[in-house]
């Protein structure tokens, strides 16, 4: 069966990483048809939008895509392509596997966790009231009527967490655990302090867990989880979190497995799924054939699994792991020192993975 996939090269180092990833995905033998579409600063300069309608329509049509990173210039009216994609397609679950591959320098070689982050609610919902504005004053007056006094010189961000949003993200975590042979889901929260938002998340998670008795369930307070992740990472498996904690713990996980160059991700919704690396467009290395394509290639592994191509996904992951383990044909960031002259480029790393695939 041929899978049609929206292919977004992105900008900065994105196109080099995306091309390397396309080559290794094709080398698995899975029949893939690429519907290539633009996004990011390059198309913005040509067409005045970083995310043309045709790109969104393509993702809607194909329901699956892989994307190189895209730059979000600071201080312009430019909206993040990733935020637009998440909002337009309701990509509510961000899946970030954090696995330490042998050969990558890390203090936490036992790490093999999967972060499942809620993507749409929480303090990131964008419900904000700027200090000194009329809306801020109205909100504070309403709160005062309810007996809650907020200082006049406060900026206010609202943290909505719903049963609907919590239920579907925890279900997504259990689904992922089952589909990938994982045995435990941990829900992280601060329900002891935020009883009506994190508390609701925890109650909902417990209820969802009852529907999945074959998977172990536990919960952790978020600060304790962070402490334990760096002291006993081997005790964790799939971790499901509301948006803000999920964002922070995802980067903690990326650090534990050796950095941004090796951290993959996928944003999944009911209408579509988009796979991309955790890192950004690293624009200072643009066009240098230098940066590490592992994160995007591993995002491609996630995409193959999403498409039901599990055998090819395992072969590709094993080939990437073998190249990293040998440590010869790897990019500068995976060498003992960053100036190591034996480091290869993005494209040669892809050649080595294709060779390892046989
Ligand atoms: P970045 O991730 O692009 O780069 C930070 C540093 O990490 C780089 O200088 C480099 O040293 C290292 N790095 C990143 N990717 C690497 C790789 N594949 N191999 C080796 N080293 C790598 O972060 P930034 O500089 O903060 O952001 C640059 C741009 O990317 C910004 O405009 C930001 O908004 C955007 N961004 C996009 C995405 C996305 O498209 N998903 C995600 C994060 C940031």
Order of helices and strands: EHEHHEHEEEHEHEHEHEHEEHHH
Measured by DSSP, the beta-strand proportion falls in 15-25%
Instruction: Indicate the multimeric state.
Output: single chain
Mean pLDDT: 96
Instruction: Give the cofactors and ligands.
Output: nicotinamide-adenine-dinucleotide
Structure explained in plain terms:
The chain is α/β, with parallel strands linked by helices. Helices cover about 40% and strands about 15% of the residues. It contains twelve helices and twelve strands. The strands form two sheets. The protein has a ten-stranded mixed beta sheet, with helices on both faces. Strands 6-7 form a two-stranded antiparallel ribbon. The longest helix is centred in the middle third of the chain and has 17 residues. The protein binds nicotinamide-adenine-dinucleotide.
């Amino acid at each position: 069966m041929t899978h049609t996939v929206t292919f977004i090269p992105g900008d900065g180092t994105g196109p080099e990483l995306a091309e390397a990833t396309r080559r290794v995905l094709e080398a698995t033998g899975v029949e893939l048809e690429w519907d290539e579409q633009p996004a990011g600063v390059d198309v913005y300069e040509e067409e005045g939008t970083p995310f043309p309608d045709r790109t969104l329509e393509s993702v809607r049509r194909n329901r699956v895509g892989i994307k190189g990173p895209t730059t979000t210039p600071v201080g312009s009216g430019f909206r993040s392509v990733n935020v637009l994609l998440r909002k337009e397609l309701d990509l509510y679950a961000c899946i970030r596997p954090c696995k330490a591959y042998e050969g990558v320098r890390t203090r936490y070689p036992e790490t093999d966790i999967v972060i499942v982050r809620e993507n749409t609610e929480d303090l990131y919902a964008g419900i904000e009231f700027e200090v000194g504005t009329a809306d801020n004053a109205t909100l504070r007056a309403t709160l005062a009527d309810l007996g809650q006094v907020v200082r006049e010189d406060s900026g206010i961000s609202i943290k909505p967490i719903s049963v609907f949003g919590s239920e579907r993200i925890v279900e997504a975590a259990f689904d992922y655990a089952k589909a990938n042979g994982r045995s435990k889901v941990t829900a992280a929260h601060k329900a002891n302090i935020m009883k009506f938002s994190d508390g609701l998340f925890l109650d909902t998670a417990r209820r969802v867990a009852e529907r999945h008795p074959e998977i172990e369930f536990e919960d952790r307070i978020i600060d304790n989880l962070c402490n334990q992740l760096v002291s006993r990472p081997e005790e964790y498996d799939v971790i499901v979190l509301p948006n803000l904690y999920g964002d922070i713990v995802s980067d903690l996980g990326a650090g534990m497995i050796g950095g941004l160059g090796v951290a993959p991700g996928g944003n999944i919704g009911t209408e579509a799924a988009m796979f991309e690396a955790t890192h950004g467009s690293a624009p200072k290395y643009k066009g240098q054939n230098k940066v590490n394509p592992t994160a995007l290639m591993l995002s491609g592994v996630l995409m193959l699994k999403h498409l039901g191509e599990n055998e090819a996904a395992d072969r590709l992951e094993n080939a990437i792991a073998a190249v990293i383990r040998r440590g010869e044909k790897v990019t500068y960031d995976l060498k003992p020192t960053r100036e190591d002259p034996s480091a290869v480029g993005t494209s040669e790393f892809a050649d080595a993975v294709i060779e390892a695939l046989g």
